Amino acid sequence: MNYKINTKFKFSLEILLLIALADCCFYFVDYQEKLFGVASGYDISMIIFFLYFIWNFVRYGTSLFKNKKYKLIILFIPILAVISSISAFINYNQGIVSGLLTHRYWIVISFLYFPISTKLQKGKLKIEEIKNAILVVASIELLLVWLQYFFADKFFFLKVIHNYRYGSIRLYIDYSYIIMSMYICFDEILKGKKKIKNIILVVITILYVIFINKSRMLFAAIIATLSLNGLLGKGKLRYRIIFGAILLTSFSYIMNTQLMQEFINAVVEKGNDPTYEIRLLSQSFYLEGFYKSPVFGYGFPNTSDISAYYSAGIGSGYLVADNGIYGYLFSYGLIGICWFLSLFSIFLKNGFLYYYRNRSSWILLMTAYLIITIATNCTWFFNYYSFYVVLILIFCEYSNLKKENIVINKK
């Protein structure tokens, strides 16, 4: 199922709806609240994802699992969940069922790899339509978050967490698809496809990071990866020079803003930043747990389990989601690291292949971004945020094609 904006731009409405479900229906719905007093938005959307998988299994049968290049990466996720749940039971008496339940979103989302890949193999879906769906999602999210930013003092129409930093409001959303789209558009610009929509999306994304997201690590990662993208680009020399001048000018300006000055103070003085201090304490705590059980990890904590609240640092304000690779090590140990290295070796290998065969660097740049932000941001292993990883894996599976819209198998 696809939708056509014009003869040249088609996107998969099916993929767009799946992403929207994973992203709290573009944040119009508070997934934390129980709908109709029965189940949370997360659980209802999980049921929809599960039914989508079952419907495709009934439709395609066992072919859903055949000829899938990276199926072992996906199939190992439930094994990680079981190992982590048992470790949590052994180390701090968290119920095994509680441990498995906290992994349910990651497992269901990851298994969407099979129906999406099957549709690509059978010609029911094209990789270009998936890419365009991501661009549409990012455009919608940017529009909504900027509108909310401007009207925040008057009313809130998005169900998002917010606070204040550097004198203005800060909105928290999953920005994975926004960043991915920025790399896709910047890649197109450097290849000579200087369409106005590409330039606008890149500029608006950078402004979003500076004025709305306000994440120091995210900003540093974007500067580093866009610099790498500029070096990889195949565009003419004059465009590289213009790009370099704009990048240096922007960097010079940002270095003199309040945001960057406080960042420097936090790094050099290691003070005046409560989030920095709590992160240091939580990282130390997670490393200590990892050292106690290095092979299988200490176990992924369920925030609603009383044992995890006291023994896994939740009561002290330590959250796995805020501590990147440290929280991941704590939860899954060296077994988890082996899975992580396998996943990212796929991203890197295919990212380079995709660049050398298609002169397209966005997969490589997205991988570099994930590696740079690994200390504080590891959304590729829990909750619904991991769906973008499934989509990257899908792109990697077909990155050896000379053209993205080639159909592999029409049977």
TrEMBL record:
It is found in: Membrane. Its main location: membrane. One of its GO terms (molecular function) is ligase activity. Keywords: Ligase, Membrane, Transmembrane, Transmembrane helix. It is a multi-pass membrane protein. The chain crosses the membrane at residues 12-29, 35-58, 70-90, 96-114, 134-152, 164-184, 196-211, 239-255, 325-348, 360-376. Residues 202-340 form the O-antigen ligase-related domain. One of its GO terms (cellular component) is membrane. The keyword Cytoplasm does not apply. This is O-antigen ligase like membrane protein. It comes from Clostridium saccharobutylicum DSM 13864.
